[in-house]
Amino acid sequence: MAESEHHPITEQVSDDELKFISVAGNIGAGKSSLTGLLAKHFGWEPFYESVDDNPYLSDFYDDMRRWSFNLQIYFLSSRFRHQKQMLQRPGRFVQDRTIYEDVEIFAKNLHEMGLMSDRDFENYQALFSEMAHYLKPPGLLIYIRAQVPTLVKQIQQRGRDYENTIRIEYLERLNRLYEDWIDRYPHEKLIIDTDDLDFVNSNEDLGRIIELIEQRLFGLFN
Ligand SMILES: Nc1ncnc2c1ncn2[C@@H]1O[C@H](COP(=O)(O)OP(=O)(O)OP(=O)(O)O)[C@@H](O)[C@H]1O
Ligand SMILES: Nc1nc(=O)c2ncn([C@H]3C[C@H](O)[C@@H](CO)O3)c2[nH]1
Question: Per-residue pLDDT tens for 57-98?
Fold first, then answer.
């Protein structure tokens, strides 16, 4: 029997109430790592964003202005498909980054930096607002906050070649947009500062994060 079927927090919660939780955060903050660890702990299925099979990412980092619209449309479509699959399939899920971050953080930043034209941004936003009618927010959004030096260290540690062109200013801008967005985010959220937490290598640090999440899930669903 799957671990989730015995999990004290989720066994009495209906699927409708807690279909999925999501991990949000800047590039290199540790979302994919935490998504995997939470999926294992709760016995839920992880949904990762499209990176290795992404046909635009490498070109985008080479020439952001040329590829910004293409990449944003690709991510939007891929995350919308994931969202639909999570709502349709039986079981519970942990999602690596939300569809809201595409719009509120990445596309907005590219437009503000002049790397996406007004007409492309308006076109993109109009598409998102049509899609938004079919979206359901996560049962809990976990924002993992990390300062830029931590992000840089972790991006370097991961070592994706095409991310070598990411500049400090780009990460700072994204962090500012994240703070603005999380402040306005109207649904259930939990903010975790991870600069001093090594949940990848320390079971104790991971345990502290899981405890915070479990306390919130208990509060929400019991
Ligand atoms: N809290 C942490 N402490 C130490 N190392 C970490 C922590 N979080 C993540 N890492 C390491 O940092 C690197 C980047 O993490 P990860 O790929 O999970 O980030 P991400 O937020 O999913 O990035 P992206 O936005 O690019 O998908 C990995 O090598 C991971 O092992
Ligand atoms: N421009 C842009 N828009 C997005 O919606 C988006 N979502 C993720 N990413 C980039 C960040 C990492 O390099 C890599 C993995 O997260 O993909 C994005 N880039």
Answer: 999 999 999 999 999 999 999 999 999 999 999 999 999 999
Nearest CA to ligand 2 atom 7: 102
Ligand 2 mutation target, pool 22, 23, 27, 170, most atoms within 8 A of CB? 27
Task: Out of 71, 96, 165, give the residue to mutate to test ligand 2, the one with the largest number of ligand atoms within 8 Å of its CB.
Answer: 71
The answer, yes or no, to whether residue 2 has pLDDT greater than 50, is no
pLDDT in tens, 114-141: 999 999 999 999 999 999 999 999 999 9
- DSSP notation for the chain: --GGGG-TTTTTS-TTT-SEEEEE-STTSSHHHHHHHHHHHHTPEEE----TT-SSHHHHHH-HHHHHHHHHHHHHHHHHHHHHHHHHSSS-EEEES-HHHIIIIIIHHHHHTTSS-HHHHHHHHHHHHHHHTT----SEEEEEE--HHHHHHHHHHHT-GGGGG--HHHHHHHHHHHHHHHHH--S-EEEEE-TT--TTT-HHHHHHHHHHHHHHHHHHH-
Q: What pLDDT was estimated at residue 189?
A: 97
Give catalytic residue positions.
96
Question: Which pLDDT tens digit goes with each residue over 66-75?
Answer: 999 999 999 9
pTM of the model: 0.94
Query: In this structure, which residue's CA is closest to atom 18 in ligand 1?
Result: 30
User: Does ligand 2 lie within 6 Å of residue 49's CB atom?
Assistant: yes
